[in-house]
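Hi there. Long-time user, first ticket. I'm pasting a complex I've been working with (about 313 residues overall). I'd like to know whether the download I got is complete or cut off, because the file seemed smaller than I expected. Thanks.
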Amino acid sequence: MDPARVLVAEDSLVVRAVLRRHLEQQGCTVVEASDGESALAACEAEDPDVVLLDIEMPGLDGHQVLTALKRDPKLRDLPVVFLSGRTSTEDVVAGLALGAHDYLKKPFEPSELIARVSSAVRLKRVQDELRSRNVELDLISRTDPLTGLFNRRHLDERIQELASTSARLGVQVAVVMFDIDFFKRINDSVGHAGGDAVLKEFSCRVVAQIPADAIAGRWGGEEFLVFLPDTDDERALEVANRVRLDVADRPFSVDGGDSLPVTVSGGCATSDGTDPEGLVRMADAALYVAKESGRNRIIPSHEPTSGAIPQPG
Ligand SMILES: [Mg+2]
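Hi, the file is complete. Here it is re-exported in full:
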């Protein structure tokens, strides 16, 4: 069988020793618990693949342990095989009705023990695989396929989250909206594949210049958003200008060929987290001012006056 981690919850020392021997012969790792409470604690702490659960135990009995597992969202899918001297059909039916994966009657045949544990482990493996695929699919559904940055859907959700965290902690959150200047001209001069290469390269430069806790995404087209948790106006402007200068100072290479000068404009806004949509709108309005006042500049929303902000470099 697939070597698995098995929790043996059984009050009899002798039965535990016998189970351990059979399971270890199959390459399993065995964790033991001698009563219901420690069985529950071990389910949490030991991350078993399957639980062999005695029904008659001191303290919490097997039925109560299984009921508690089913109530815990993290543990409810853990396969449980009851192991009991109660062998009537009613007992077996009652155990399965509580959500047990299987039921093994004492005294058991070793081959049957192994077969039933193996089947539970296979179920656990399939569940784990599905869970990790779901995580992967969720990530794909939040990722912009061209740039690998987060997409608008994810940004919309994160700004709500970030805003409420900021409001709770009493700190500011900053948003920078970037827009690559004259992107249509870039597409016209180097073609759409070249334009895509510019978007990808721009994304890499953004990620390289922003702090590790910042969240960067593609808002749409050539527009990008960066969220900066716990960041004030001054710091947001500094980060945004770092991106702007990195773009302006090093021409982009398209298809390893000619170097293409690119510039970016940006608007930034900060808030205490009370109005997340308003925050994005403010950054967008500041971006508009940056475009109108000559491009290749960052304008903070609290002072959206054309030409009022000295731009370093
Ligand atoms: Mg017992």
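A couple of notes from our side: The first strand starts at residue 5 and ends at 9. The chain has two domains: 5-140, 152-300.
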